[in-house]
Automatic annotation (TrEMBL):
Lineage: Bacteria, Bacillati, Bacillota, Clostridia, Peptostreptococcales
Top-rank lineage group of the source organism: Bacteria
Protein name: Zinc ribbon domain-containing protein
């Protein structure tokens, strides 16, 4: 159980839970993401724009950007092998 951040009612922490008292989407507000910084990896609230631990930007770090970074890494390895 988690507490609704708006009205304080105890609600289920399962994904998609809506607070029965105030209608807030509790799971969305409470959901956490991992800081994309490899040295940090702190669990931070999705609502925050910057990581409170390392200060890096959290928003705008989309999946396709991560894919691109991963691909760059693969390219680096590839070129290393070639030379
Ligand atoms: Zn509520
Ligand atoms: Zn961080």
């Amino acid at each position: 159980m988690v507490k609704c951040p708006r009205c304080g009612k105890e609600v289920s922490s399962r994904p998609g839970t809506i607070c029965p008292r105030c209608g807030l989407n509790v799971s969305e507000v409470n959901s956490k993401i991992r800081c994309p910084e490899p040295n940090c990896r702190a669990l931070v609230s999705k609502k925050l724009e910057y990581c409170p631990k390392c200060g890096c930007k959290l928003k705008g770090y989309k999946l396709n950007e991560l894919m691109r970074l991963a691909r760059n890494k693969i390219d680096e390895v590839f070129y290393d092998d070639k030379e």
